[in-house]
Structure formats: structure tokens, C-alpha cells
Write a structure and sequence with these properties.
Layout lengths: L3 E4 L5 H12 L5 E4 L5 H11 L6 E4 L2 E4 L1 H9 L3 H6 L1
Parallel strand pairs: 1-2
Antiparallel strand pairs: 1-3, 3-4
Protein name: Glutaredoxin
Family: Belongs to the glutaredoxin family.
GO cellular component, one term: cytoplasm
């Protein structure tokens, strides 16, 4: 199963929606990182993703983007192969 890392905020509806899709796909182990609580982690997220908003989702180290990007990837049929890797 793929390793999922998500920069996350508990109160973010987009974070929850992205997490919900992954859980629906059978992913139960999501490493959540909380950049709002840690300035160094926020810098890391921006360096890795080029973006300043959460969620930022990585599958096996590959940046797939935020919630809308994850949903679009799923609609195109590209999410399942990444998760199965």
C-alpha cells in the first residue's frame, strides 16, 4: 500500500474531504503533519509543494496537490494506480 503524507489542519473542510476520499479508497494509515503548529514544518511544506495552503498531499513522496487536485486525479482514474503501488 502507498505511503500517504498529508499536511493537514483539523478544522479545514478540504483536508477532511481529501482524507474522506482516501479512507473510502481503503487507506487507513495517513501521516498527518500540522504546519500551523510548527513554522519549520510550514516552510518544509512550502518548499516541497510550492504552495502555502493545506491540504498538501504526497503519495509515495510524489506531490499530488491539494483536495481539488486529488479529486480530479480520482475522476481521471489516476488515483487508484498510485494507491496500489
Amino acid at each position: 500500500m502507498a505511503k500517504i503524507v498529508m499536511y493537514f489542519r483539523d478544522t479545514c473542510p478540504y483536508c477532511r474531504r481529501a482524507e474522506g476520499l482516501l479512507v473510502k479508497k481503503g487507506i487507513t494509515d495517513i501521516e498527518k503533519l500540522y504546519p500551523d503548529d510548527d513554522a519549520d514544518l510550514k516552510r518544509e511544506m512550502i518548499e516541497r509543494s510550492g504552495r502555502t495552503t493545506v491540504p498538501q498531499i504526497f503519495i509515495d513522496g510524489k506531490h499530488v496537490g491539494g483536495c481539488d487536485d486529488l479529486l480530479a486525479l480520482d475522476r481521471r482514474g489516476g488515483l487508484d494506480p498510485l494507491l496500489a503501488a
